Amino acid sequence: MTNPAAIIVAARRSALGRIGGLHRNRRVEELARPVLSAALADAGCEPDMVDGLILGNGTAGRNAARAVALAAGVPEASFALTLDSQCASGLDAILDAVRRIAAGEADVVVAGGAESLSTAPWRLARPKNAHQLPHFIGFHPLGLEGSEGSQAFEADEFLARKLAITRAAQDAFVVQTHLAAELARERRQFIGEIVGQRATPEEMRDQVATGADPGELAELQPFQLDDGTLTAGNTSPLADGAAFLVVVSPKIWAKIGRPKGLVLQRSLVCGVAGTAHAAAARIALEALLQRGTDKAARDVGTLAAIETSEASAVEAIALTKSLKLADGILNAGGGALVRGLPLGAASAVAVTRLYTRLVRDTTSRGKSGAVVQRAAGGLGIAAVFEATA
Fold first, then answer.
1. Which CATH superfamily is domain 264-387 in?
2. Three-class DSSP category at 146
3. What is the DSSP string of 5-20?
């Protein structure tokens, strides 16, 4: 590997909790603070070394990054930026941190995402006239339960029909991904990744990961009543959670002993048509691979791991089928169907999972991996990372 311009040297996340559950009384800064502090401690960096914080968040309003930074003891002189590209926000924040360090603007930047849907301000749609009542606007990426925008689940239904992904196949995939997450827990693969706010077992386990019963999944009513296949059981539930990574310059990397970490190789963001929304993550990754400088760089088979926070089982199945991925490549420890989808933190959680698979896992068989994510509005983002020696 040539001399990297920026290195990710630490990655931590909270356990993800149901809305109104594990983190129900924790504002975004309270939820984020212990995760950020743990990531800095892992990196061997004191808070006063931080030049800036970049936060992905879609619901808190205001510049939530500033509140998080001050709560974590980051110097007042440090910059703090909040990005909102919905589920792509966390990865966007990490890519921005890498670019700023590569440009010589900073030496230590903390980046990631945090979302406290349980305490987020309510949003109301303005009535069109005096005879209408205001109504609440939700945040679900599939456009469910009064959310803004088009019904994105229709794009997932379109993809399911196009690839002949049945309701039974989707439900079976949910069961499979729950089993994969349970196996990862049994093998203690989340040790060193999840930060508990208190010393209790509940704080160290994603709250939505409670297993999936095939019979119960089969009884759920589809969102699209006539011929729909998507249900509350085979789509990802919203969640509260936070994930932060520490990105440093080569100078700081040398100062802290050149620990193993991740280096960004390349990235890409693209827009897609509405009907292709469910395939946006795959489209972004394929476009990124096509830009590779040699045959190996253009081959998805060179990636030892791929992580995403999928919105539905259809999306994850389609990723695997379309890219012809081997077993265990995509979301080896379970995806958002198991752990939940914390919007602005979703893709930062995925990068943290990739860090565990390529850096923490000493048995990893490869050095390169990718994080891909779809985001509301028909956007796809992909990034390829490589573990340092």
1. Thiolase/Chalcone synthase (3.40.47.10)
2. coil
3. S-EEEEEEEEPPEETT
